[in-house]
Amino acid sequence: MTTDNDETTECTMSLPGKQLHIPPYSTALPAPVVFRTACMPADAAYPLHRHPWGEFVYSFSGIMEVKIGSRQYLVPSQYGLWLPPDVEHQGLNRYETTHCSLYIDADLCRRMPETTCALEVSTLVKAMLDHLRLSSTVFPYSEAQSRFLAVLVDQLYGATTLGSYLPTSADPLLSKVLSWLESAPGCNASLAELAKRVHTTERTLMRRAQRDLGISLSEWRQRLRVVRAMPLLEVGEKVENIAHDLGYASASAFIAMFRRLMGVTPDEYRRNVGDRIQIK
Fold this sequence. Notes:
Layout: E1 11-15, E2 18-22, E3 33-40, E4 44-45, E5 54-61, E6 64-68, E7 71-75, E8 79-83, E9 90-93, E10 97-104, E11 117-120, H1 123-134, H2 143-157, E12 161-162, H3 172-183, H4 191-197, H5 202-212, H6 217-234, H7 239-245, H8 251-262, H9 266-278
Antiparallel strand pairs: 1-2, 3-10, 4-9, 5-8, 5-10, 6-7, 6-9, 8-11, 11-12
Helix pairs in contact: 1-2, 4-5, 7-8
């Protein structure tokens, strides 16, 4: 992610105890489509910024987090995040992540969504992004590389859109429930118990979840558990331990949930991420 500062200014990423500096672009892209990849250390954050081009953010490993106003978007590796031109945003993360950005000139963004949203990433798009990273594709691009980037943008035009992988809510009742679930992802409190905790009814909580989240609280809680499981899998934690900590009575129940949401088993996800990290 870049800032809209002038060419002599550096974009600063803050870290506890030190600063990382990332050279920015100027107010214009050097090409219609630009690919950039970086490794972001744990507990790091890019400064709040905006730019006149669109940006597609994808995480090869780890979970990228992007803050836009009061909303925070999480980007696990099954999805990417689309940021239209001129959207003020901040990249941050709690865990180390290897990610990339595809910067797209505003004229090419007309067929992309008009609002910030998560995009499902197809197997083909994943392979194309991996190719760009592993081949160290940098500007200036050859004619073949420029055509490749144009095809990649074409693939994004048809991607399925989602509001957010793990949406948030400003509703006073629902936000309290979500905050509590985030603090205790392994808790298996029923909907009735959650409603009682915030002094409301099950029906009210269900209605507000569908209104603000677009999914049920049960689905939201499962997505939260996937998000919490991913960094643990990447550092080698046993599946059985993760399942137990996340409130599952058995590893098989956790594996079934993870596979339904991510399309791969926890061990397959771990191997895929390991392969991406090891191949440079």
